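Exercise 7.
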Amino acid sequence: MSVHIKHFDRDKALEVIVFIASSLPNATRHSISKMLYLADKLHLQDYGRLICGDRYIAMQYGPVPSAIYDMMKVPDKRVSIDVDWDEMIQEAIGVNGWLIEAKRNCNMDLLSESEAECIKQAIYEYGDKSFGELTDITHDAAWKASNRNDTISIDDIVSTLQNYEEVSNYIHAH
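Solution. The predicted structure, written as C-alpha cells, is:
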C-alpha cells in the first residue's frame, strides 16, 4: 500500500531549490534532485515525513522529485506551471546552461529546523560527489524496485532505511 505522507508544498519546494542551489558549487537539476532525495531519506528516517511531500520518479539517472524537477525547468521556459508561479520561480532561480543558480537568499522561515539540518547533512556528505557518483548512490533498492519513469513508492523508500520497521509503522498509523 502506498502512503501519501503529506500534500506537496510548492512554497517550501521553491525555498529548498534556492537553498540547495546556493549551497552547492555548480548546482544542476541532477545534483539538486539527488540532494533532496538523500535529505528526504534522512528526514523520513528521523522524523517520519518527507520535506516537501513531492513524489519521486525512477528516472534513468536515479530518483527525481517530479514537481520540483518541473519547477527547475521554468526559468529556461521548458515548462510553465502558471503565470504567477512562473514569475515567482524566475525571480528565485535562474538557469545558465546546465547550472541552476539562486537569485536570492532562501526564506528559511519556510523550512523547519529538522528539514534544514537534513538538507545540510546531505550536502555535507554528498555535495562534492560527481554526476556518476550521485547516480550510483541513488540507484538504491527503492529505485531498483521501480519501473523506469514510474513513481517510487514511499514504502520502497522506507524499506531502504535502517529503522524501516519503525518508520513504516509510524507513517501507516498517521
